[in-house]
Predict the 3D structure of the following.
Amino acid sequence: MSGIQTSPAVIAVLDDIAKWKAKGDAEFGGSMAEVDREEDSARRAIEEAQRQLLALATLRAELREKHAQVGAEAERRERAALRAGLSTDRAVIEARAAKLEAAIATREAELQRQLQDPEIAAAVEEYEKFVEVEASLASLPASYRRAILDHHEKIRRRLEPVIAASNAGPPMLGLETVGVGVLFAVDPAEGAPEALVAVLPVPFSVCRDWAERKEDLASQFAYRVVAAVSRLLTRVGAGGAPIQYAELAGCLAVQVWLGDCDAQGDLREGALEEIDALREEADELGAAGIELYGLWVRAAMLADEEV
Amino acid sequence: MAGLELFQRMSVEQVAKWLELHPFEIVRILVADGSLPSDLKLDANNVERVRVAGGLETWWDGPPAPSGGEAADRALVRAMLRRMLEKGNVEPKVVRADNLFRGLDVENQRVLRRAVNALIREGVLASSMSAMGLTVTITAGREPDVRAFAIEGAGVVDRLWDQD
């Protein structure tokens, strides 16, 4: 039996098919290689992007850490600035206190000199005698008492210039006006206040050692602020709130516990208004060329010794 | 010859020493009373206002003389408690803490301070802070104990004294 004979035409067709397939295979190989290259390129791009993302995340963390350090540094600088401000203002008050003291002493020495005048000295002696017996006047007959009172009134009128000068306001120093600040803070900053603190640029000794140190401008400054805080407490319905005095960075701190009071009203606004009123009232500060202002700070700035 | 002080009104510090009060308390009392002079110089009327508005009293012109061999410290504490009873300083009526000591010398003030602190620790007395400063009162319900010790020198408080 003979095999099937394939005609040349078929052979040619099959050959063409083979060639067509080979061409398709070659094209496929080329395309796949192209896709592989594109894929590699894309993968490298992704890897690069991932590296960039990682680097950005690291940078972000570094920036956050740096920013946190800036915050802490700003707080440290703020505390240092407050401490320096208190110290500077305290030095101003102490220096002006000494000058005011000297001016008052000079004025009083002059008044004492006037008291040596024989005519005035005689009147002073009579005035002093009256003061000694004043309490017992009620026991005297009315006519006798009236005569003594009339005579005393004559003496008092003669001494009126001396009496007025003795009680005159503080002498003006004529110095350049310098601003000094009282720091206020309330805690918590929002909601019902539990504590109020005012830090004054005067030494704590005006409170602790008051009996040993002579009353001076720093003492009077403290009295003024204690009065202002007391008025403020009355304004907000917390007149009975207990006050304590403490030392903060060597200065006097007036601390008020408001936790047991139902304080109503704006403490911040009220405190600044009281300081304004105090500025008008305190002649001794005006005479010493000191202008008082109030500054509200965050309670954390005054929370411990690290003001 | 008299000096200028004959004519001058008093400073807050001078009044504080006179009344045995802290100057800041004087300021606070006068502010509450609405009578703090704007120049911080005080006259006799201001001083009287401090006394009245601040509830200041002077209980002593010296320590009581002990009798019957009683220790001086014990006699002093009993006399103080008697005065608190006489003035009705039983909760809720309070007395300024410094009234308990005003008029005594430093040593006797120290004795009373220690005793008052001990009685507060034991709950016989109670203290509180207010606008007028530290106040003290006989704790509600402890009046009989205080009376027994103050009047008769006996009772629970007397035993506390013995322990001390």
Notes: Chain B touches chain A at residues 1-4, 6-9, 11-14, 16-17, 22-24, 27-28, 30-32, 36, 38-41, 129-131 (CB under 8 Å). The two ends of chain B are 54 Å apart (CA to CA).
